[in-house]
Amino acid sequence: MTNDALERLERAIEAVSSVVDPEIPAVSIADLGMVRTVRLAADGAVEVDLTPTYSGCPATDLIKQQVEAALAAAGLSGSRVNLVLSPAWTTDWITEEGRAALRRCGIAPPPRRGEAETPVACPHCGSEDTEELAPFGSTPCKALWRCRSCREPFHRFKCL
Amino acid sequence: MTTIRVEETPHLTAILRLADTALVLSHRLSEWCGHAPMLEEDLALANIALDLLGQARLLYQHAAELEGKGRTEDDYAYLRDAPQFRNYLIAELPRGDFAFTIVRQTLFSAYFHPFWRRAANSTDRTLAAVAAKAEKELAYHLRHAGAWLVRLGDGTEESHRRTREALDALWPYTGEFFEVDAVSRAMIEAGVLPDPEALRPNFEETVDRLLREAGLPRPPAVWMQSGGLRGVHTEHLGHMLAVMQHLQRAYPGARW
């Protein structure tokens, strides 16, 4: 790879990494595990593969547009952004940094594969004395919970 | 822009059956928006509708690839008439009361959860990818509907009566899940679709367990409704499409 190509690729990765989830702006799409690959195609254009999260997530199209806009703003015109269904996204792809960022904005991260569904630690005070208020929340990825220790309600990221 | 004519192959028909079922049920659920008995259920039903709509979109996109005529997901949703829809009849029945909706979601999810789990091994890679996610979504829907079925069946006299009536009304529509015609036979043999007969034990076990917990009797074997898969629908689908397709019919090609 030439220096110029390498520089373009680095710029592309930086641009893609700057895009955040419009519903949870504290978490980047990279930390959500949505970015599969960033590469230079044979024709020199940047190509990005994204994995959509929940089947019906209305943010998917917006995220795709934001990635295209970020690449264009980085001077990488003619970039292509693909939505790739297989392998299917799972909440296990959320990075450690992503899980920490979710907690910081009051959302309990999902259990990892093989982990029990409960107890759920309160993202505010850490207490495990919590209860589910409603299995569905304000977005397709979240359920509504409440902490019995600090009395604060919180969202919980649903396991997928 | 008029009604499109889809040249159906067995593979395309199989995908449209799944896509249409998800879309039509999604629409019925979305009719609850602002009308559910409580805010949490308003959110829940809207979220389930959204999951099904997402599944329908991915399946229609796949149908467009299979057909290869440059169509979009919207063409299939908005530019076909009722006889061209291939959905299971259970999906199109009017939303009824809350008990009816819960019983329908329970029966539907009790079948489609194991369906998608098996379809995740489909030889159709795109279908397998849709299935991998749909399976987890349906598991969540089933848990939600099942919990409500038990609360309603084991609740007040009124909730028990309504749930039982809904169960009796919906049971004859469960036969279609297990219907196999030449199209599905070919797709089962090609490894695209799971054989519904293999899903029956799982479906029955789930339904029996929930009905027992809810204190509801298993409906007796009755004559089963049929027709949706070949485009013979109840009178309700046409009315639903009139609402759902109104904008594209009144303002062809409208975009926003």
Overall description:
The complex is a heterodimer of chains A (about 160) and B (about 260). Chain A has about 160 residues and is of the alpha/beta class. Chain A is about 25% helix and about 20% strand. Chain A has two domains: about 5-90, 2-Layer Sandwich (GMP Synthetase, Chain A, domain 3), CATH 3.30.300; about 95-155, no CATH class. Chain A has three helices and seven strands, in the order αββαβαββββ. Chain B is mainly alpha-helical and about 260 residues long. Chain B has one domain: Ferritin (Up-down Bundle), CATH 1.20.1260. Chain B is about 65% helix and about 0% strand. Chain B contains eleven helices and no strands. Chain B has helices spanning about 10-30, 40-65, 75-80, 90, 100-120, 125-155, 155-170, 180-190, 195-215, 235-245, 245-250. In chain B, helix 1 (about 10-30) packs antiparallel against helix 2, helix 1 crosses helix 8 (about 180-190) and helix 5 (about 100-120) runs antiparallel to helix 6 (about 125-155). The interface of A and B includes residues 55, 56, 57, 133 and 144 of A.
Summarize the structure.
Chain A is α/β, with parallel strands linked by helices. Chain A has 2 domains: 3-89, GMP Synthetase, Chain A, domain 3; 94-157, no CATH class.
